[in-house]
Design a protein that fits this description.
Elements: H1 2-20, E1 43-47, E2 53-59, H2 68-80, E3 90-97, E4 106-112, E5 123-128, E6 138-144, H3 150-163, E7 165-167, H4 197-212, E8 220-222
Parallel strand pairs: 2-3, 2-4, 4-6
Antiparallel strand pairs: 1-7, 5-6, 5-8
Bound molecules: zinc ion.
The site of zinc ion (ZN) has 5 residues, from helix 3.
């Protein structure tokens, strides 16, 4: 009799337990964190001074007016991130020019032959630091002559401006997670039109680092990758 009662109690407990037990299991997908040098770009390239204003020109006849909106898109997206990325570096597009300008805070985008089968880079950033302190005074972006697709030009300008805010190329990053991965070809856009969340965080690290120390260096640095 007592055994039956005990069995009944156990069944009741089991029934109660099964009623209260959560029937749905939620799988939480955590976003991959941005880790500088791993899932987001490494830092160490030279930078525009914090709080500066960069004027960007497109040299003609290397580029015609049909490329203006492609360049403006990239510039506008980095400019919009100026406060969030901790640099407060603002970018403005100033139009077409016949000169390669070397005035303070100027960046000229020109064409040249930079591609080779070993390095496979479609553009380079040539940074000039007149006080040899790794702070950029003026810069030139050289885009390979084979780049004809305006969407790819947007990707390239986003990438090179990323360099000018301290970011290096990222081979370990996912292609959609950064502007700092390599493009596959001069015809195929990677869809990146501005800095990603991880790019902005990496720039934040670069400018925190910059606030702590000034590094001695030569006067010209070319991004060779
Ligand atoms: Zn690069």
């Amino acid at each position: 009799m007592r055994l039956k009662l005990l069995a009944a109690l156990l069944m009741l407990t089991a029934a109660t337990t099964s009623i209260n037990y959560p029937k749905t299991i939620t799988t939480r997908v955590e976003p991959e964190p941005c880790v500088v040098g791993h899932t987001s770009a490494p830092i160490g390239f030279w930078t525009w001074p914090a709080n500066s204003h960069v004027n960007i020109y497109l040299r003609e006849p290397d580029f015609s007016a049909e490329y203006v909106s492609a360049v403006e898109l990239a510039i506008g997206n980095w400019d919009a991130a100026a406060v969030e990325n901790g640099s407060n570096v603002h970018f403005s597009f100033r139009g077409l020019t016949r000169e390669t300008t070397s005035a303070d805070g100027d960046l000229t985008i020109i064409r040249g032959d930079v591609y080779n089968s070993k390095i496979k880079h479609l553009a380079v950033l040539q940074a000039h630091s007149l006080k040899s302190n790794q702070l950029i005074d003026y810069a030139v972006v050289i885009v390979d002559s084979r780049v004809k697709n305006p969407e790819v030009l947007t990707n390239i300008v986003v990438h090179e401006l990323g360099h000018s805010l301290g970011l290096l190329d990222c081979n370990s990053c996912s292609r959609k997670g950064t502007a700092m991965s390599l493009l596959k070809s001069g015809n195929e856009s990677n869809g990146i039109e501005g800095p990603t969340v991880c790019d902005k965080m990496a720039v934040l690290s670069a400018y925190r680092d910059l606030a702590l120390r000034v590094r001695a260096a030569s006067t010209v640095l070319t991004d060779l990758r």
